[in-house]
Design brief:
47% of the residues lie in helices and 19% in strands. It has 275 residues and is α+β, with helices and mostly antiparallel strands. Helix 6 runs parallel beside helix 7. The protein has two domains: 67 residues, Orthogonal Bundle (434 Repressor (Amino-terminal Domain)); 200 residues, Endonuclease, Chain A (2-Layer Sandwich). 29% of the residues are buried. An eight-stranded mixed sheet has the order 6-5-4-1-2-3-8-7, with helices on both faces. The two termini are 37 Å apart.
């Protein structure tokens, strides 16, 4: 959803015409409606003072409106997690953590995520790296070991942060971490340290027992944080990618699809990592 489409949706939901909204925020009649039209056509953006006036009229917080308009990542992440928070049916988000999670550093996005976990979202966090280091080897293996440990540490820390903030008895039913089922040393594993993260989303359809499947890619570095929808199973060019990721997550996704419960113990290639 573009910034302009988002503003249009909020305005219509609040029951304003462009002209009426322009008048409410104090824009002159001679150019107010045109200015709103330019925002909604992605030809211009409201400034800070205009955002402060718009937010309460459109039924969102100033934080949320500012965040959505600030960056591409924030728009995509906020849109996705808002939808998940409002979902009426069970939803599974299976995420491959080949890098440290950074999206959750934003408190507003994290609150949306926490709200979703209290309701119908189930989060399966997959870390493809070993937890067993083995004997010290070359400098390159030590560097990779450090990277793998930082990813594991950040995922475990995120779970504990979410556990404290959600503080709900159902937390462990809605969030699970999985690592390789077979212990391996750094010499046995050769997984590239991608600064990206694939996420497979399964959303139960209202009228059937089927699931709508979507694939997302998050690219997070110090300079860049993008969350992109790659596509859904309705798109032929993406269908095979989704099938491959479903196969990679193997038994965990299959087990959840049958019972809407995250499995514990070993499940195919993966092993559950409890508290």
């Amino acid at each position: 959803m573009s910034k302009g489409s988002y503003l249009t949706e909020l305005r219509k939901r609040a029951g304003f015409t462009q002209q009426a909204l322009a008048k409410k925020i104090g824009l002159k009649a001679s150019y107010g409606q045109k200015k709103i039209s330019q925002w909604e056509a992605d030809l211009a953006e409201p400034n800070r003072q205009e955002i402060e006036k718009l937010a309460p009229l459109l039924g969102v917080s100033r934080e949320e409106l500012s965040l959505f308009l600030s960056s591409r990542t924030s728009q995509s992440a906020l849109e996705l997690f808002t939808r998940l928070a409002n979902a009426d049916h069970p939803t599974l988000l299976a995420v491959c953590y080949s890098c440290q999670p950074r999206t959750f550093l934003d408190p507003l996005i994290r609150r949306k995520y926490e709200h979703a976990l209290r309701k119908n979202l189930y989060l399966a966090m997959f870390v493809p790296f070993p937890t067993y280091i083995g004997e010290p080897g070359s400098s390159s293996s030590l560097l990779l070991t450090g990277y793998f440990n930082r990813v594991w540490g950040s995922v475990l820390a995120l779970r504990e942060q979410l556990r404290r903030e959600i503080d709900d008895a159902s937390f462990d039913r809605h969030l699970a971490i999985y690592g390789p089922a077979k212990e391996a040393s750094i010499q046995d594993v050769f997984v590239p340290p991608f600064a990206s993260r694939y996420s497979l989303l399964l959303e139960k359809e209202k009228s059937s027992h089927n699931y709508k499947k979507s694939l997302y890619l998050a690219v997070e570095t110090a300079e860049r944080k993008d969350l992109q929808l790659i596509g859904t199973t309705d798109e032929e060019s993406v269908y095979e990618q989704i099938q491959n990721w479903e196969a990679y997550f193997a038994g965990v996704v299959a087990a959840w699809s049958k019972s809407n419960a995250l499995p514990t113990g070993e499940c195919g290639y993966w092993r559950y990592h409890g508290r």
